[in-house]
Give the backbone structure.
Amino acid sequence: MKYKFLLFDLDGTLTDPKEGITASVQYALRSFGIEEPDADKLTPFIGPPLKDSFRKFYGFDEAQAEEAVAKYREWFAPKGIFQNEIYAGIPQMLRELKEKGKVMAVASSKPQVFVEKILDYFSIHDCFAVVVGSELDGTRGSKEEVVEEALRQLQETAGRERENKRTAVSDTVMVGDRKFDMEGGRRHGLVTVGVTFGYAEEGELEAAGADFLADTVEELGRLLGE
């Protein structure tokens, strides 16, 4: 895998956000009179856009889903964002890849303001040339849109001609733990690497067309560093 440009998802790929995300979802649901004590039942909220998840898993309409997201952030912004752990070996892997000349970006569906704070919190922000997330108002909410913007910024960082899209994606990889990452990467013609230590259901990454799978951080580092 001699690829120079590496796009990483955040939640479930670089960090394990389960505690913070599920606690924030529980807080939001409680405001609707819904008690969900089992955090494991809420792990499907890790990865896709929040509003979509509230609609899909709890049948909320558009207005309810927007209210739920606002409630979610009441907990997440001051508390949940830091109820998070970086996967063992990730900082070392990122620094080794950077030393090998890889140009890296974060492409996350999480609002960019939170992505930036998390990268700073774990002292890995300097590993990335580009950081792209969604916006708090809901724009750039799909993974496809996030990947598109990350590619655009990477092209500018690399001094490439933006209209030469085929060249721009020929040596770029999307790394993530959910089908949304694989689908977002593939829609832009990227090679995709799925990490199985995140929150994908069994067979999800294969069904989404992942080109490669990595079962551990060490395996991922070897794969990307070749």
Observations:
- Residues 182 and 200 are 11 Å apart (CA to CA).
- Strands lie at 5-8, 15-16, 85-86, 103-111, 130-134, 172-176, 191-195, 212-214.
